[in-house]
Structure formats: structure tokens, C-alpha cells
Design goal:
462 residues; 7-stranded antiparallel sheet; 4-stranded mixed sheet; 16 helices; 17 strands; 34% helix; binds D-malate; binds zinc ion
């Protein structure tokens, strides 16, 4: 056995150091199937102290590391593409008792989003971020990618929920700042810095998360439109009319709904495919159904071709299925290029109509599926039927030209590092590099992610 494997096993136990390809396989491929590699080993520590000891050993050995949560990332940032050691945080799943007075909870990085929300629910509270991968995505990975999701419009992204963090530096030193004090001006905001750092600066092990009131009444509306301008105009009206209660505003198109319906064997909404759909959700301490219905009838009116409002859980789930099943339906149809981008509000409708043609010109016959979080200007551009980087280049350059962001909520990962310069100036990238050098001078933490350079030693350990 490789001496490093023996040393790691002494820390975490032999059953938590995996080198057998059958056991490492599920840690080595992302769930779109686009990003895959071989891990030198997978290490599964069970506490911050074990993560610290593991990192000290790997640092000493100069071994590159990929920290991994639920492996639900979409930009190749959490899989060992270059033979790195995977440090899986999933065993750090313990959630402390909810601190109701503070409206916060301290949790291990490996707790799933669903588990944190369930713990919050037990105390009459909720977690502010929600996304379709809730049963697998871990809160540590969600902070590392600064995930946004479905309620971003109301509560902000993971960075906004993170009141404190405990993390292990590349050399094994532990940073712990978990008090979650509302006011705490004692220097740099490390939690804010680690949010969105994609495992390149430290390994997040514990989090102090903010919670939000649990709003028991919830109503979902689905509206169909002839075009994106109509849907976005309606959204602007609904945002004005429902400033306290609007929680989600999701946009999707006929092509995506057709895929979902084929995949799940569902009839299309309203019995036919319409060009554009807007799904909205409102919530409140009192039933918001009438407020939503009135805003739709008076504010949206005949801009919409059709509409449905559902307050019962089964009816709401039926409407959400058309949106939430997009990712699985796309995956069932092939291995997509996933380009998650933000457009300025005024450019969104133009982008939605321009991008399919731009993709078709680069990759004739490729299928473009567009959906996303409309209120955030966030479009998930999914392209099936091509892996040509020229397609990514075309879409990302178009986004940058329109003043948008090449990564809205999924991160840069391995997928987009070559295009970081479209959004970040040389001076900004210099600052990123300086921060990286300060926290990880030997460059062992996720060296092939985010920044446009890497340096790794990748001999096998198995
Ligand atoms: C979503 O909004 O459903 C997620 O970001 C996943 C995806 O883009 O496929
Ligand atoms: Zn999304």
C-alpha cells in the first residue's frame, strides 16, 4: 500500500480511504457525465480535525486536492479531472440544534440542503435557498459555488445566508469563525471570500447559516405567453404588485417543455405547447392566492395566452414539475453543454431570441434548451448534440458583449476558466492570484479550477 494511503487511513480509518476504482467511480464523474477523471484516492474524513490532519498530510506530500460535497456541480469543479485526491465532506453531515433566538443554525458542510431545511422546519423556520438538487446538494458545496437557486429573488444567494464559516487551509490550519454575530466588524470577511471560491482557497467544514421565517401559505402560478417580451413585461408588473410575497419567477420555453413532457409522459400545460412560460410562486403568513390572482388578472391581463393558479401542494407540484424536470429531461436526451449566464434585464429577451440562431450557425443541428431564473436575469443555456468549444465561445462572448456574466450561479469550475477574462480584468485576475497564493502558496487546492492556470502532481496512489 502507498505510504500516503496508510497515513491517511491512520487518520480517517481504512474504510474511508478509497482507491478501488469500483468504489471511487461515483466520486469521479459529475452527474451530467461531461466531466470525468480518475482520483488518486478518495478520502472521507468525519470531522474538522480529521480534515485538518488529512490536509496536513496531503500538503506535506504536495498532493493536489479536489474538495467534494454532493457532487451536484455543473462546471467540473468538484471532480478529479487531473488525478487529484478527492476529499469528500459528506460525512460532516451533523446539524446542531437550531438557534431560534438568532434565527441561525450551525451545520456540518456535508449536510444536504433538504436536511438543513428540515432541521429549520422543526424550529418553525426555513432555509432561504432552494434548488432542484436539494436532496443531494450539500451546504458546503453550495457555499463554495455561491449557489443561487429558486428563491434568490427574495433571499439572495448562499453568500447572503452565510453568517460564519469554519474551514481548513491547504496546510491543515483551521479557521473558525462561527458565532454568526449580526454585527462583527473585526476585519476581513472570510466567509464572504470563501463563498464562490470553488474549493480553491480552503476546505469548508462547518457553517453558521441564517434562517428565514417559515411561510406556511404558498401559491404557484403558471402563465403562457406568445414571446419572451410578454413574459418579462408580466414579470415586471408582478414584481411591482407583489413586493412582499413574490418568491420565485422561472422562465422556460416550448422546447424545454416538450423535452420534459416526452421524458415524463406528461401532457403539456393547457393542452398545447406555447412559446414561453413564466412560473411564479408567492408565499406569506396568510394565504396569498387572492393577491396573486388579482395581480395576474388586473396586471398581466391578456398579455398572457393562458394561466393557472394552484394553492394545493399536489397542484403546485404539478406546475413545478414542468420547470424542475428540465435538468433531468435534458440529461436523459444527451450530454449537454451547460452555460449558466446572467444578462442585464434589458438584454434578456433579445438574448433569448438571438442565442438559438447563434448556436445553430456554429453547430448545425444542435438543440438549444433555454430556461432559468427570470428575475435574476439568469439563463441556463443547455446545448445538446455538440461538444464544440466554439459554441461555448460564441455564447459566452455574446453574453459578455451584452454586459452579462459568464457564470450566474454554477461557478467557473474547469468549464469556463478559459473565458474568465471576458468578465474579469487583468488587475482583478492578479488580485485573485494574490489571494490564492496567500491562502494556498503551493497551489494544491483545486488547482485546475477557476483561475486560468494550474500546477499539479498526480501520480496514482492505488
Ligand atoms: C436549475 O436551475 O435547475 C439548476 O441551475 C440546474 C441546471 O441548470 O440544470
Ligand atoms: Zn439554476
Amino acid at each position: 500500500m502507498h505510504p500516503l494511503v496508510t497515513a491517511l487511513a491512520d487518520v480517517v480509518g481504512a474504510s474511508h480511504v478509497l482507491t478501488d476504482p469500483e468504489l471511487t467511480a461515483s466520486y469521479e464523474t459529475d452527474w451530467t457525465g461531461r466531466f470525468a477523471g480518475r482520483a488518486a484516492a478518495v478520502v472521507r474524513p468525519g470531522s474538522t480535525a480529521e480534515v485538518a490532519a488529512v490536509m496536513a498530510l496531503l500538503h506535506e506530500a504536495g498532493r493536489p486536492v479536489v474538495p467534494q460535497g454532493g457532487n451536484t456541480g455543473l462546471v467540473g469543479g468538484g471532480v478529479p479531472l487531473h488525478g487529484e485526491v478527492v476529499v469528500s465532506l459528506r460525512r460532516l453531515a451533523a446539524i446542531d440544534a437550531v438557534d431560534v433566538a438568532a434565527g441561525q443554525v450551525t451545520t456540518g458542510a456535508g449536510a444536504t440542503l433538504a436536511a438543513v431545511d428540515a432541521a429549520a422546519a422543526g424550529a418553525g423556520l426555513a432555509f432561504g435557498v432552494d434548488l432542484a438538487a436539494r436532496d443531494s446538494a450539500t451546504v458546503g458545496g453550495m457555499v463554495a459555488t455561491n449557489a443561487g437557486g429558486l428563491r434568490m429573488l427574495r433571499y439572495g444567494p448562499m453568500r447572503a445566508q452565510t453568517a460564519g464559516v469554519e474551514a481548513v487551509l491547504a496546510d491543515g490550519r483551521v479557521l473558525s469563525h462561527l458565532a454568526g454575530l449580526a454585527k462583527d466588524n473585526t476585519g476581513y470577511d472570510v466567509a464572504g471570500l470563501l463563498a464562490g471560491s470553488e474549493g480553491t482557497l480552503a476546505v469548508v467544514t462547518r457553517l453558521r447559516l441564517r434562517l428565514v421565517p417559515r411561510l406556511e401559505h404558498r401559491t404557484t402560478g403558471l402563465l403562457a405567453f406568445a414571446d419572451a417580451d410578454g413574459a418579462l413585461g408580466a414579470l415586471a408588473v408582478l414584481r411591482n404588485r407583489l413586493p412582499q410575497s413574490l418568491e420565485a419567477a422561472e422562465l422556460f420555453l416550448a422546447g424545454g417543455v416538450a423535452l420534459v413532457c416526452d421524458h415524463l409522459g406528461l401532457p403539456p400545460p393547457f393542452g398545447r405547447l406555447d412559446p414561453v412560460y413564466l412560473l411564479v410562486e408567492v408565499s406569506g403568513a396568510h394565504d396569498p392566492t387572492e393577491e396573486l390572482a388579482a395581480a395576474v388578472v388586473d396586471g398581466v391581463g391578456d398579455r398572457a395566452l393562458d394561466g393557472a393558479v394552484e394553492a394545493e401542494p399536489a397542484g403546485r407540484a404539478r406546475l413545478w414539475r414542468y420547470r424542475e424536470a428540465h435538468t433531468e429531461a435534458i440529461n436523459a436526451a444527451g450530454v449537454p453543454l451547460k452555460l449558466d449566464v446572467t444578462l442585464p434585464a434589458g438584454e434578456l429577451a433579445g438574448f433569448l431570441s438571438e442565442v438559438p440562431g447563434a448556436v445553430e450557425r456554429m453547430a448545425p443541428g444542435a438543440r438549444c434548451v433555454l430556461f432559468g431564473h427570470a428575475a435574476d436575469g439568469n439563463v441556463h443555456v443547455n446545448v445538446l448534440g455538440t461538444a464544440d468549444p466554439a459554441v461555448e465561445d460564441t455564447v459566452l462572448r455574446l453574453v459578455a458583449r451584452l454586459g452579462g456574466s459568464i457564470s450566474s450561479e454554477h461557478g467557473i469550475g474547469a468549464a469556463k476558466r478559459a473565458w474568465l477574462h471576458l468578465n474579469r480584468s487583468p488587475a482583478e485576475i492578479d488580485v485573485f492570484r494574490a489571494i490564492k497564493r496567500a491562502l494556498d502558496p503551493d497551489g494544491i487546492l483545486n488547482p485546475h479550477v477557476l483561475l486560468p492556470e494550474g500546477d499539479a502532481r498526480t501520480e496514482a496512489l492505488g
